[in-house]
Amino acid sequence: MIEVHEIAKRYGDKVAVDGLTFTVQAGAVTGFLGPNGAGKSTTMRMIVGLDAPTSGTATVNGRPYSDFRAPLHEVGALLEARAIHTGRSGYNHLRALALTHGIPMSRVTEVLKLVGLEDVARKRVGSFSLGMGQRLGIASALLGDPETVILDEPINGLDPEGIRWVRNLLKSLAREGRTVFLSSHMMSEMALTAERLVVIGRGRLIADTTVDDFVRQASIGAAVLVRTPDATRLREQLLTAGASVSSDEPGVLEVHGVTSEQIGAVAHAAGVTLYELTPQEVSLEDAFMSTTNQAIEYQAETTDEEDVELIA
Amino acid sequence: MSAINASPARDSRAGRNLGVTQFRVLRSEWAKLWSLRSTRWSIAVAFIAMAVIGVIVSAVNMSRWQSMTPFDRLHYDALDLSLSGVDFAQLAIGVLGVLVITNEYSTGMIRSSFMAVPRRLQVLWAKVGVFGAVTFVLILIGAFIAFFVSAPIVHAHVPLSISQPHAVRAVVGLALVMAVLAVFCVALGALIRNTAGGIATFAGVFFVLPGIIEILGTSIHNSISPYLPSSAAATLYTAQSAAGDHSLSPWGGFALFCGYTLVMLAASAYLLRKRDA
Q1: Of all helices (H) and strands (E), which one includes residue B154?
Q2: Could you tell me if A170 and A29 are in contact, meaning their C-beta atoms sit under 8 angstroms apart?
Q3: A100–B35: do the CB atoms touch at under 8 Å?
């Protein structure tokens, strides 16, 4: 479990993270979303003790990272910038890390096999593709068989097969009861991988919820698609009922402002036949875009420090 | 492919002595040092320069012995010249000492290192310990090779023996000074964190500064020069005869150099803990 409490990071005048509080539970994949510069990477660096927070605390399983005597067994992290010397082979990179904890070399071989790098393990990391570098970073994160895994953009540069592999890996880690915290800009992938979400913008919390709730919340007020042979009459009735209606093709209405239940009732009362009545659920990407845009505009407009209530 | 073979590793961990120890960090730094081509080359260059250059200098001087002036012959310092590889070795060790830590900053490796070892000073002590010890052993061997190969070469004209005054002090002292220099430069690298800046600072302090002080005039030169890190370091391995009147005593100079190094080390340790990686 990762607990971040009122954490803030300032670089001079610039505020990167601004009083962030959230909890990442064990046993689920938690996605960490936010636009570029929202403070995701800084937050992750503070969790693993690389950056010191200006104020607030971050703990993993109740303890600050620097307290761990065997941190690689507690937390495995892949940070966005590749933290690997390019002149070393993948094997020697992992070996140097393993030696600090007395992890046997058999485990190094094991994780290299796990990420599919056993054939190139003796090659210099400088010759690796972006995807291979990511795989080695994931191998480093898993080296100590940690209870908590933190991955910053792990699927950058991976091919479709690699992306699916990471997805299954993270899900199975979570099934084993581990804490998995993952940031990514690939919304479609996040929708498939994560169950929970922490969404931030400009260093502040926007949402701490499940993926389903996040999407449902953003879907409120979304259009309902209606297909009917009697579009003109239904349109009139719906406008009378207070809906706004648009239409791109004959016989198909896009209805805003009323629920599908209300549309059904209106149609029934008017004796209009319906072929289709579909609430349009927004994608995670749409939900993310609308939620973060609102939040960021709201934050930009307000100078009030107490606007954290905005959280969905 | 099963995602992660978790349980066996978790079970086997239970009984073993887990976690980071200073000794384990030392082993890790040892492995890091030798697993890079650039470090292996730099260490080889330092060693070969130390062992070979003095021999070449001695041989060349002996071959032109007949054309040397009587004054030059009288003041020929066979011990000092047999160890003339030290300047080159010093350059290689200084550059490598800086690189040992700045290359981790430039590649991002330092983040992996500090995530594995959150008590960052353990990393600093391990780097200093490993690189200092490697330098001491290799330069000691190199200096002895240079000395014992040069001795028979110069023997016809100048006696050079390990039993003569200052000889052991110069040879062993040279290795000691280079080991302390190694520590100095690792600390410098940790302080500056940037390869170009670190190497420039090292070269500036050890190779440029003495020249600048020299052109400032005799009185300034005499009062400042002995206290420069480079001169303080050199007192231990230069025979007393070669040193000027204004030099510090051999061990006094060495103590001063150790003092500079301790200050560097303390400053870098303080900042290493304080700064974000």
Answers
A1: helix B120-154
A2: yes
A3: no
Type of residue at B237? Y
Q: Which residues of chain B have pLDDT under 70?
A: 1-17, 239-246
In a domain? residue B53 = yes
| pLDDT tens track for B118-170 | 999 999 999 999 999 999 999 999 999 999 999 999 998 988 989 888 899 99
For residue B98, tell me if it sits in a domain: yes
**CA separation for the pair B241, B220 (Å, rounded):** 22
Which chain A residue shows the shortest CA-CA distance from B29? Answer: A96
Number of structural domains in chain B: 1
B95 within a domain of the structure (yes/no): yes
| CA B51 – CA B58 distance, rounded (Å) | 12
pTM, entire model: 0.87
Query: What CA–CA distances, in Å, run from B210 to A140, B83, B108, B163, B216?
Result: 46, 20, 35, 32, 10
**Location of structure tokens 């899900």:** A171
Q: In this predicted complex, what is the ipTM? A: 0.88
Asked, for residue B14, whether it belongs to a domain, the answer is no
- List of domains in chain A: 2-217 (3.40.50.300), 223-279 (3.30.70.100)
A29-33 and A179-183 beta bridge pairing:
parallel
Structure tokens, A252: 């198909």
How does residue A308 score in pLDDT terms, banded at 50, 70 and 90? Answer: very low
Domain containing B52 equals: 22-274
Q: What is the pLDDT of residues B171-186, one digit of tens each?
A: 999 999 999 999 999 9
What pLDDT is recorded for position B8?
43
- At A166-204, the pLDDT tens digits run 999 999 999 999 999 999 888 889 999 999 999 998 899
CA distance B130 to chain A (A): 14
Q: Could B109 and A83 be called an inter-chain contact, meaning their C-beta atoms sit closer than 8 Å?
A: yes
* Chain B residues in contact with A59 (beta carbon < 8 A): none
Average pLDDT, chain A: 90
**Cβ-based burial of A23 (10 A; exposed 0-12, middle 13-18, buried ≥19):** middle
- CA dist list (Å): B92 to B158, B178, B179, B182, B203: 30, 10, 12, 10, 11
Nearest CA in chain B to A52: B276
